[in-house]
Design goal:
Elements (H helix, E strand, L loop, with lengths): L9 E9 L7 E6 L3 E5 L9 E3 L6 E2 L10 E8 L2 E6 L2 E6 L13 E3 L1 E2 L5 E2 L3 E8 L5 H11 L9
Antiparallel strand pairs: 1-6, 1-12, 2-3, 2-9, 3-4, 4-5, 6-7, 7-8, 10-11
Length: about 160
């Protein structure tokens, strides 16, 4: 039986997402019990990318519920949390995310039980989990590679 496990102290989760203005937000992807990222629910960081969605989270600078595709990369682990949106760093926190033990054997896409976030109200595509912390160059490369498919112009 396949038993995925995190064998590194750092991970990166990437995804493309699109949400309409005023949508409810919700979890884009989560790994384990409380290591999720998503768009803030209305009234609580509405439309911002938040990770992890509990504790002292990192948050993006703006509301991304604009009915456009966006590429997000969330790096979590011993170095804290970084949120990259459309190839640029857009939020960080020094909060260390514990990825040891059995915390991280369940990957959910579009749904998370943490903090009542529930289902993502929007579209999610091309979710990837990396057992390492991607570099800035790798994040920009993956953004540029996926942008034509998601009808974006990359500068």
């Amino acid at each position: 039986a396949l038993s995925p496990a995190i064998t590194s102290s750092d991970i990166t989760i990437t995804a493309w997402f699109k949400a309409s203005p005023g949508s409810a937000g919700g979890t884009v992807a989560s790994i384990g019990d409380s290591r999720a990222f998503g768009l803030g629910i209305p009234g609580v960081d509405a439309g911002k990318v938040v990770a992890p969605n509990s504790g002292n989270a990192a948050k993006s600078s703006k509301d991304y519920r604009d009915d456009k595709w966006h590429f997000v990369a969330v790096k979590m682990g011993s170095g804290g949390v970084q949120i990259w949106v459309d190839g640029a760093l857009d939020g960080n926190s020094s909060t260390v995310v514990n990825l040891s033990g059995t915390c991280c054997t369940l990957l959910r896409i579009g749904y998370g039980q943490e903090g009542g976030w529930g289902y993502f109200t929007g579209t999610v595509d091309d979710v990837k989990l990396y057992n390492e912390s991607l570099t800035a160059q790798e994040i920009h490369k993956y953004y540029a590679e996926g942008a034509p498919k998601h009808m974006l112009a990359v500068k």
